[in-house]
Amino acid sequence: MDSRFRGNDKCLCDPCISGHSRESGNPQRVIPAKLESIGGIVSYAVHLKCRECARTYPLEPLAACEECWAPLEVVYDYGKLWADLRREDIAERPANMWRYHELLPLDSEPWVGKQTGFTPLVAAPRLARALGVRELYVKNDAVNHPTLSFKDRVVAVALSKAREFGFDTVGCSSTGNLANAVAAQSAAGGFKTFIFVPADLELEKIIATRIYGANLVKIQGNYDQVNRLCSEVAQKHSWGIVNVNLRSYYAEGSKTVGFEIAEQLGWRLPQNIVVPMAGGALITKIYKAFEELKELGWVEPAGTKFFGAQATGCSPISTAAKRGTPEIEPQKPHTIAKSLAIGNPADGSFAVKRILESGGAGDDVADEEIVEGICLLAETEGIFTETAGGVTVAVTRKLLSQERLNPDESIVITITGNGLKTVGAVKGCLEEEEAIRPRLAEFEDRYLSATPAIAV
After folding, report:
1. What is the pTM of this model?
2. CATH topology for 121-147+253-427?
């Protein structure tokens, strides 16, 4: 069986690498013919490398290391990058994620997502006061193009790479945001698309996937079970599955969050960063981005503490971090934060290592605290985040209260999705207003009679 897709007894999907049996026989080798060049750019990617055993592989659609089944990641020629590229070059480029294209694994101009990225890094003084923090920023991917989440970044890389590899059909397994991003950018890129999701996914995310014409496959099971089926599909069919055989490339898109934060801070790194965790890839790729910028000499080599945020109802990574071990114990998800509800995360152990090595910590919060976090961010900074962002805000507050986050140091919190995706999570905490008649007296009686006078 071809090593790119063979399953052994492991599921190769991101973010799940979980054991389960294989009943099918050896699948056929399913590598499509590569397309002709569609506009060349200089690529500094050298090869893929196993994150565990360090075995290297060519830059092909590979799912995982054939020796130890650990994830693969892209390695670049940093010496050549250092010689060829200056950070001053970046400033003259369009404000999107492709301003860092030399640090991304494409051989051609991006096929999709040309307006994706470079989302605002917002100074958050009102939230800072509410939390008792001196310097606080919000990296706001709730306004990312085109589907309002950070997943637009990873999908732009994955589908552009799928085009280079010659795939005409793509897909993914998803808890929602990835489904939206793959469906939208596949429509723009002309791909046939299959999206695999748990049947209990939020209605908003179901609609925001189907509207683009994708084939939506609802599975009776949790996300880890969806992943297993998706991996089997990838083994049999000549498709580009963004979080299976395109996974090594797709994850690199998350680095652009880190690149942007550093540039938007004036080419300096924050002292602390709080990141929501599902599969654990995002926090590891922001870490990689910061390390690459240090390697290039673009930022001072100051340390950043990484803090991982999860929902208590699905907290395998934060639980391991609190135990001080990278050993992940899978959990059965039960939380309103469905976009983080991954019980057996493939990058979980790597996320824990990065957290602990940096001097940071992992923690989790209950569903009630998640809703409070959503409301607090909205009421202080006018940013409506989905449940994952509520997790990030609430964990930040918890870490501050436990004195594990230093309020006198700079802190960045990453908001990864828009609140319009999970409206149902906050609907019950908002009082429904009774209508009044169109009369000034009724308005003043209802809203102004008990309101204190405004100082002038």
Report:
1. 0.89
2. Rossmann fold (3.40.50)
